[in-house]
Design goal:
Blueprint (H helix, E strand, L loop, with lengths): L1 E5 L3 H11 L6 E5 L3 H10 L3 E3 L4 H8 L4 E4 L3 H13 L3 E4 L8 H14 L3 E2 L8 H7 L4 E10 L8 H5 L11 E7 H7 L5 H9 L7 E6 L6 E9 L2 E9 L1 E2 L2 E5 H16 L6
Parallel strand pairs: 1-2, 1-4, 2-3, 4-5, 5-6, 7-9
Antiparallel strand pairs: 7-10, 8-9, 10-11, 12-13
């Protein structure tokens, strides 16, 4: 089996090191607009080969891969995923916040249906998506997510700057945002992929409620998911260790991708 990783940041690097040790893969490709970073990974992993991030290069190599993993950005989803699915190749998307854009989502979903490429979205940095998915088979009354992170996760955010908020000066827990998942993804694209994931599984981007909290004393990323519906009541809380190199990303997000890749490669899905 052969795989292509788009992105060589914290998640892409973790995936590359894991795939290097997986016997299911004899070779994998890696690409990134930061070519030097991707080339460095290719040098460190004997199974890896760097390819240029141009559309032409990626199209040429798609003929030789079974699965593509996007671990780069929402922009990468918009640019590459329709191409990948259009060639009938499976793709696993990490930057699921891109699907908050209705046009992008419908385009990708429709191409997947027409061309046969499967689109996978792992659970990411949150637990409880399996129960939410089951509950969505009947009526769901409400879905609420409260995400609490330290100041480093929210630094250099344009929305907060426009509000005059300096997270480094906060002395106590502070609510930075409260509203719909659609608005949360728009204002905090690097922080709330989980908001998009639970919205797509459950009651949609406009009905899913999100609260973002900055806690100066926090050393983890916490997500509290609460779901109410005809099935009953779910409360699920996850405390995540953040990546040292990227505090906005939780380590569990990378592990969820690794788990998904193992299941896809092994053709065995338990707990789906």
């Amino acid at each position: 089996m052969r795989l292509l990783i788009i992105g060589s940041g914290a998640i892409g690097t973790t995936l590359a090191k894991t795939i290097q040790e997986m016997e299911e893969f004899d070779i994998f490709y890696i690409t990134d607009k930061n070519e030097e970073r991707a080339k460095k990974i290719a040098k460190e992993c004997s199974k890896a080969k760097f390819i240029s991030p141009t559309d032409e290069s990626i199209k040429a190599h798609l003929k030789n891969v079974d699965l593509v993993v996007e671990a780069a950005s929402q922009e990468a989803v918009q640019r590459y995923v329709p191409i990948i699915l259009g060639m009938g190749v499976d793709v696993l998307v990490m930057s699921v916040g891109a699907f908050a854009d209705d046009d992008v989502r419908e385009r990708c979903f429709n191409v997947a249906k027409r061309k046969g490429g499967r689109l996978f979205v792992p659970s990411g940095a949150i637990c409880g998506t399996d129960g939410l998915s089951s509950a969505s088979s009947d009526v769901i009354h409400s879905v609420e997510l409260v995400s609490t992170k330290g100041p480093k996760s929210f630094q250099d955010n344009p929305y907060l700057r426009s509000k005059g908020v300096d997270v480094n000066k906060l002395k106590e827990k502070t609510v930075l945002f409260e509203g719909s998942a659609r608005d949360a993804v728009a204002h905090f694209p690097k922080n709330v992929n989980v908001s998009a994931t639970i919205s797509l599984i459950g009651i949609g981007l406009d009905k899913t409620k999100v609260k973002l909290v900055c806690d100066p004393s926090s050393d983890c990323n916490t997500h509290r998911l609460e779901v109410k519906g005809e099935f009953g009541h779910i409360v699920c809380e996850t405390d995540n260790v953040p990546f040292p190199s990227n505090p906005a990303t939780s380590y569990l997000a990378a592990l969820s991708a690794i788990s998904a890749i193992r299941r896809i490669a092994g053709n065995v899905w338990i707990g789906i």
